[in-house]
């Protein structure tokens, strides 16, 4: 079976996504008119979920582990949730700042409808501040600093259906901070048999996560390192809540993949990679895919070189030695670590190069040679 | 401190002006740890400033702080006619607890009298909406006197990475203005302890929400240490017409009091330290715990001193209350 989208279209769509300009779906001409017709959005308030009133018109946000205490007329750390007179609101409900049609491999998700397009959106805002953020121009700004559109959940699903995309992704920034919007899009998507995916840092509290799960089909978590120190110094967050989220997702039966961006000298030590891989194998199981992706100098970390390919290859070897079955190398087109192999008989199942996908010895979710069932969402 | 000791320990008239002049090339703050407070209880009533008395109080403040009979001459020594001067107000808390329009106007008047063209003066804060709600009338850059938020003025295109800060800086502090007068208010802050002079420049960056953790320490100090921020501030005047020792930063009628004061310094650390002391005294009078006991001691002030931005040691700060 061949990939369903011509490579030319994938590359164009991905180029527009990388630019993160306020020009949606440039590379996908069929949709351009529909999206450009969206009205520009004013800041507006939508009641937020998961917060508690405090004395003196103060509120405590309980959506993510940061638990911001927010005074009247102030915003939380993510910059998109505001206290007005002792009530709490999200400023980004129905206000996407970017909409694109991406190959699902770009997320990356390799065990989820490979070779298909995924309708992808984001609002501004993030609940951490990674010094290596690729999308800081939208993740680290406030709603009034970036152009956005007025697109309620129904409109998003309608656009995805116009594109004939079988799934939607909440991505680019941090979907946790546009939780209310993402959740309603998920509800709407399921009504129309579209799958709903979240690409997240996993920095969310248990209750909102569990309430979100019924509207999700797959989750990709960026596990940014395996030390609290890294999370403290380079992420402005904490590791443990992310590990807790991963355990909750897997326990709930949610299809989950992990991306680990390998940053030279910061999280690329053998011991750390080995420890992380053992933890995944032991706590989540060996079938959870792990992608080691290549770092490129960005944002506040421009002085570092890109990750050497050998480092990524070594990380993959360590993870496989720790017992993980599906370990990938990302952002290195042509690397053998892009392909999916059968862990039983080592047959090449899915061949990838960049966003090009070719099904080799794989059909009906099984290895064509030995019949082993390969975990994932394949249809 | 009494007046005699103040003058004994201060540099004295001409020397003081000379010290201030150094600030043209960077913060003069470490060299002159003097803070002056003047008060006129009749300058404010229920938060409403009297324009005439506020202007007179400002002139008295400048005379007292610089030991000069002529406030215009002081401003002339601080600013040249070629300067483009930003007046950074704090407009986050509506009309009742923002920098009073009457004070900003009086400062602009003094600048004009000192020879700075009115179209070279910009009253600014984070957002147009904040300025409007604080009672200011918006006027675009280039008009006399301009008044605009950073959302209208725009941010520099390049990310500024400086110590712990990674932000876009408002054009108000990068290319539009060559000098700043900082006009914060005197109030408590529910996260960082107090919000006074140095913290006021959180309004100059696009992502202030990222820099409140750990009580703003070291972020407040790190931001202020940037040459485009602290390096351009030639004078800080705290609008202490009101004081709010608890419940800030929003206006809380339960805690806001008329104070009728203005406070000045060219040392931002000494000024914040003194402002913190006044907040603590007011907290004590109201039966409130200290900020340290409340878990929000403004340690960023100490950090700023460690960076060499000014004087934090109360025994070395020269306080003059007139
Ligand atoms: S979601 Fe935003 S406001 Fe809520 S706790 Fe997290 S960072 Fe703070």
Report a brief summary of the structure:
The complex is a heterodimer of chains A (379) and B (322). Helices cover 27% and strands 21% of the residues of chain A.
Please write out the topology.
The complex is a heterodimer of chains A (379) and B (322).
Chain A: H1 7-19, H2 29-36, E1 46-47, E2 51-54, E3 58-61, E4 69-70, E5 81-84, E6 87-90, E7 98-103, E8 117-122, H3 136-139, H4 153-162, E9 167-170, H5 179-191, E10 195-200, H6 206-212, E11 218-222, H7 228-235, H8 240-251, E12 255-262, H9 270-284, E13 290-294, H10 309-321, E14 327-330, E15 340-341, E16 348-353, E17 356-359, E18 362-363, E19 366-367
Parallel strand pairs in A: 8-9, 9-10, 10-11, 11-12, 12-13, 13-14
Antiparallel strand pairs in A: 1-6, 2-3, 3-4, 5-6, 7-8, 15-16, 16-17, 18-19
Chain B: H1 3-9, H2 13-21, E1 34-39, E2 44-45, E3 48-49, H3 51-66, H4 71-78, E4 85-89, H5 101-113, E5 121-125, H6 128-133, E6 146-149, H7 150-153, E7 160-162, E8 165-167, E9 179-183, E10 185-189, E11 193-195, H8 219-224, E12 233-244, E13 257-265, H9 268-285, H10 300-306, E14 318-321
Parallel strand pairs in B: 1-14, 4-5, 4-9, 5-6, 9-12, 10-12
Antiparallel strand pairs in B: 1-13, 2-3, 7-8, 10-11, 12-13
The complex binds iron/sulfur cluster (SF4).
Q: What is the CATH class designation of chain B?
A: Alpha Beta
User: How much helix is in the residues of chain A?
Assistant: 25-40%
Domain unit count of chain A: 2
Using the alpha-carbon principal axes, give the shape of chain B: globular
CATH topology of the largest domain in chain A: TIM Barrel
- Our estimate of the beta-strand percent of chain A is 15-25%
Largest sheet of chain A: 8 strands, mixed
**CATH architecture call of chain B:** 3-Layer(aba) Sandwich
Question: Could you list the spans of chain A in which at least 5 consecutive residues all have pLDDT below 50?
Answer: 1-34
**SSE series of chain A:** HHEEEEEEEEHHEHEHEHHEHEHEEEEEE
Name the CATH superfamily assignment of the largest domain in chain A: Aldolase class I
Order of helices and strands of chain B, N to C?
Answer: HHEEEHHEHEHEHEEEEEHEEHHE
Number of domains of chain B: 1
Counting DSSP E segments of at least 2 residues, the number of strands of chain B comes to 14
Total helix count of chain B?
Answer: 10
**Cα radius of gyration of chain B in angstroms:** 18 Å
State the major sheet of chain B: 10 strands, mixed
C-alpha-based Rg of chain A, rounded: 20 Å
